[in-house]
């Protein structure tokens, strides 16, 4: 809401990317769960699976674009910047939503994680391999950004690495333990860790990319007299 006060042309790339992240995080946090709690339906379960897959896919796209954007300082991004990331994250979405919906439908007929069929196994391992590919892509983006950025972007890179890099590694560990190794199947740890890490990342991006208030800055600049920037006796005679 604060960002929309200024025209879109003044938004930074990071801010443009953060707006959809915030919007999708609302769906991910499931504000409609109260209806499911009062009147459970299969349709809601499928909807929640799809909404979660959309958010997670954009979350993955956001991290790739975030670190690659550091290497585009003072340069306009082109289609080649976004298309490869969008295509791969779209594939991740299709894999995730197909696997999730298949599991949901199977659970409607009484299937459990112990008696899923071969189709579920194929979908699960396909998703695992795609996530492995994404993990290496994300790590390489972080490393390249750290090598190629200049000193003016160093602080931003450190903050992004603390937020994004930590999130990637924690989520990777969680997926390995719970998806690949199938540990703690009857525990809520998988949901709690994933939910907490992703929401913490969204909140940090909201803080990092809070809109720069041009009006307040202009008022601050107008209040400063030019003579304050000169040593005594060195002020230009034409300064008013």
Notable characteristics:
mainly alpha; 240 residues; 70% helix
Walk me through this protein's architecture:
The protein has 240 residues and is mainly α. It is 70% helix and 0% strand. It contains eight helices and no strands. It has helices spanning 13-28, 33-38, 42-69, 79-108, 118-148, 154-180, 189-208, 214-222. Helix 4 (79-108) runs antiparallel to helix 5 and helix 6 packs antiparallel against helix 7. The mean pLDDT is 82.
Instruction: Estimate percent helicity.
Output: 55-70%
What series of H and E elements makes up the topology?
Answer: HHHHHHHH
Mean pLDDT: 82
Q: Helix segment count?
A: 8
In short:
The chain is built from eight helices and no strands.
Topology:
Elements: H1 13-28, H2 33-38, H3 42-69, H4 79-108, H5 118-148, H6 154-180, H7 189-208, H8 214-222
Helix pairs in contact: 1-3, 1-7, 3-4, 3-5, 4-5, 5-6, 6-7
